[in-house]
Amino acid sequence: PAAAAGDSGAVFTVAVSNAFGSVTSGPATLTVTMGAPPVLTITQQPVAVGVVSGAMASFTVAGTCSSGTLGIHWQRSQGGAAFADIAGATAATYSVATTLADNGAQVRAVLDCSGQSATPSSAAILTVTAPGTITLTPTPVIGLSSGLADTAGAYGIDQVADGSFVLTNGPRIQRLSADLSIITPVAGGDIVGSADGAAATASFKSPEGIAHDSAGNLFVADTGNHTIRRIAIDGTVTTIAGMAGVSGSADGTGSAARFNNPVGIALGPDGDLYVADTQNHVIRRVTVGGVVTTYAGSTQGYAEGPAATAQFNLPSGIAVAANGDVIVTDYGNNRVRRIVRAGNAAGAVETLAGNGTQALPYPDGVGTAGVIRSPSGMVLRGNTVVLQDLGGLLRQIDLATGAVTTITGARTLGAGYADGPLGAARLAGAGGVALAPSGGYVVTNPTVGGIATVSATGDVHTIATSRAFGVVSGGTGVLAQMPLALAAGTFQTLGVTVDPAGSIVLTETVRDVRRISPSGAVTPVAGLVGSTGNGVDGVGSAAQLQTPRSLVSNSAGVLYLGDGNAVRRIGTDNAVTTLAGSITSSGAVDGNGAAARFGAVFGLAIGPTGDVFVCDPFNNAVRRIDAAGNVTTYFGVLGQSGNADGPIATARLNFPSSLAFMPDGSLLVADYGSIRRISADGSSITTIYTVTGAAAAGIIVLAPDGTIYFGGNVSNLLSSGLYKLAPGASTPTVAVAYDIFGPILGSGSGIRVNSINGMALLGPNQLVVLTGGQMITVSVP
């Protein structure tokens, strides 16, 4: 390799060996003499920028190198913090949509010449001022795809030579990049059909199996068309065997052959294709020239023995070992079968594993002692075959011994949809399997339109799903790029908070939590979109959420989540643990951790000493959780409603839904439309403002100057909108009026507010508001 300065002084030896032994050379030392480093000259320094909140701010830098290539990476510092790299900001101009929280930020660029002579530019100060009037702007978000790739029909999957994965999906063939970051089209599109030709105009009908050859050609079992298709390396699609739309069972060449819903396809070491002709219950052999013969099987049933008389029942997946043996997942027989190679033909058919039953809990075992429920897609790895079964398990079978072991899945939970390790992860079953690096796998989960990775130790991590979204075709993207799923309905409440780094963290209606950095980049935090699990703790997508509706961050960036009837903690490492309550059980019980019960968890707030305060509206109380997880009733009487002010002994709450702490330690409560204040010592309560029918107070936010912002998410739509109660004022003013036609995407007055689903303080005089399925920034003079 090319020598670098750091290589100087390295010592090298070489060992030479043959059948009689080896000898090692003496040492040789490498000395690297570097020439003078390139000269970097900054020809244009970034200059200070001042904008009104919501406007774009742009900074530009320029430089030259005496040799090498100029490199640029922008950095940012806020509030005296050290400069940190801005992800993806490597162009000469860096632009950002501003909020008031950006005021005072410093921006600079670090320039280099092919990695040498790195030099920071001068720092430019960003000044952001409040607008003269209330403005509504889209909250900056980048990295999302409005045309997210549809994976609803993902089934067959195969890793090709460049490390990427090709998959069949409904009427199209797609490619998943090797780094698992993006899905792009290969051939086919929205139209179901059987057209050959160029990739963009070709069409398929529910293709399932897919394989590749060493030249890069793809071979597809076009199940709904009853044909075998080839996609050349230039994308051209041709039908090599079968007649589109005509099912049957006939050997022959090209269009004279007939198939009946072929599913599995694999390329053998002899260069021929082997096809699981599922509805014909046979295995077919297809040359790349289109000559089709029946390789094994006769009629539907179960029989071992010679290939010509053996029986299969809905054979599904297929793989060919290096010695020519053909391995078949016999779906209807709940077995994995092997067709032993005999010269250039099929020998005897035998059962490798499975005993024909679906006996729970699908035990592992050797050969017929292992129970495999309706096995489907599979892949070979060395001397083992790995497959999915309808029990929601990923199984491995040793080809030498027939020993069946489970790689991942949850026997006690059954098939489903959840990330996590062996025993907690849930696969919907009946999907495809492909090899992945480091001994892992990539699997499809067609029941939920999912694609997931499985590590060698059985950890499952979903990278794409269509479960929570309608069919959106023609786009690209994976899980992290999904559009935000924010509530548009009147009654749905979502959690939103701002962490110490200035990032917006929010819950979504599809059971997950995501973070949006100040630059607008979106990253997953916890939960899995559309998961079928309830309340399982774990890290990131392995955690299962049920009804995430409130969220708050402490000063260290630890998040607390109101999820159904429980309060959960999300650490800075995205690990989710249940702090108190039960996801599945409600009640009215004080106590420690899992022994406590809430009627439901709505608004949350962090107290002056770090305790978590909880709105429990169905129990008409505010509860407190200390650091040890002990739950006590802070104010109100469990199960007794009312709106009486006064001392704690006689005062009552009536559906508290949102909380905010005042600087003096007193606690503001949105209580069935009224704003009430609990004294700092928790001994009494007074009503600050009562709804008169024009303003709702379901969600409250307190600004640093004591201004209270509140909004409605109520059945009476005319009570929705955003309101402002100035310090000492007895009557609120309308900050943003409810608009029955809103929201409408755009800028300025083009965005409108209706029922407010979530709200948090983004910066001085600035709020982030979730309304009508959109996230907007509200800047107040």
How are the secondary structure elements laid out?
Layout: E1 11-12, E2 15-18, E3 21-24, E4 28-29, E5 40-44, E6 49-52, E7 56-60, E8 62-65, E9 70-77, E10 84-85, E11 93-97, E12 106-113, E13 116-120, E14 124-129, E15 135-138, E16 154-159, E17 165-169, E18 172-176, E19 183-188, E20 209-212, E21 218-222, E22 227-231, E23 237-241, E24 252-253, E25 262-267, E26 273-277, E27 282-286, E28 291-296, E29 305-306, E30 315-320, E31 326-330, E32 335-342, E33 345-353, E34 365-366, E35 378-381, E36 384-388, E37 394-398, E38 403-408, E39 433-435, E40 441-445, E41 450-454, E42 460-465, E43 496-498, E44 504-508, E45 512-516, E46 522-527, E47 538-539, E48 548-553, E49 559-563, E50 566-570, E51 575-581, E52 591-592, E53 604-606, E54 612-616, E55 621-625, E56 630-635, E57 646-647, E58 656-661, E59 667-671, E60 674-678, E61 684-689, E62 699-702, E63 708-711, E64 721-725, E65 733-737, E66 756-763, E67 766-771, E68 774-779
Parallel strand pairs: 6-14
Antiparallel strand pairs: 1-4, 2-3, 5-8, 7-11, 9-10, 9-12, 12-13, 12-14, 15-68, 16-17, 17-18, 18-19, 20-21, 21-22, 22-23, 24-28, 25-26, 26-27, 27-28, 29-33, 30-31, 31-32, 32-33, 34-38, 35-36, 36-37, 37-38, 39-40, 40-41, 41-42, 43-44, 44-45, 45-46, 47-51, 48-49, 49-50, 50-51, 52-56, 53-54, 54-55, ...
